UniProtKB/TrEMBL annotation:
Transmembrane segments: none annotated. It comes from Sediminibacterium sp. KACHI17. It is an enzyme of class 4 (lyase). Belongs to the DHNA family. Pathway: Cofactor biosynthesis; tetrahydrofolate biosynthesis; 2-amino-4-hydroxy-6-hydroxymethyl-7,8-dihydropteridine diphosphate from 7,8-dihydroneopterin triphosphate: step 3/4. It catalyses: 7,8-dihydroneopterin = 6-hydroxymethyl-7,8-dihydropterin + glycolaldehyde. The gene is folB. This is dihydroneopterin aldolase. It holds the Pfam family FolB.
Length: 121
């Protein structure tokens, strides 16, 4: 099994339940790993693997849709990856809100999800 990764992708988006988050937005850090079985070894063409440009485009598109809960965003991205990339077996996604609107809070908040194709069929 191979894995394709997007590491530390920073996207400005408007997720959150508070009014100021919907207006000002926030920076989010997204990590995605997709485990898959290539259609053949050795992998020598893009058709035998998962295109990380297409993977990034999928993540960027979904992150652009304002949503109150990161749990929803993570689930939507993971399920769309499994739907769009037939070779994918497992998706591991983590989304961090880099500057949450919590008074005197230093750090980030976030969610993570691991979903297996066999668990959704």
């Amino acid at each position: 099994m191979l894995s394709i990764h997007l590491h530390k992708v920073i996207i400005h988006a408007y997720h959150g339940v508070y009014a100021e988050e919907k207006v000002l937005g926030n920076d989010f850090l997204v990590d995605v790993s997709v485990n898959y079985h290539p259609s053949k070894y050795p992998v020598t063409t893009i058709e035998n693997t998962i295109d990380y440009v297409a993977l990034y485009d999928l993540v960027k598109k979904r992150m652009s849709i304002a949503t109150p809960l990161l749990e929803t965003v993570a689930s939507d991205i993971a399920l769309e990856i499994l739907a769009q990339f037939s070779l994918s077996v497992t998706v591991n996604i983590a989304i961090k809100k880099l500057h949450p609107p919590i008074p005197a809070f230093q750090g980030s908040t976030g969610v993570s999800l691991i979903i297996h194709r066999k668990d959704i069929q």
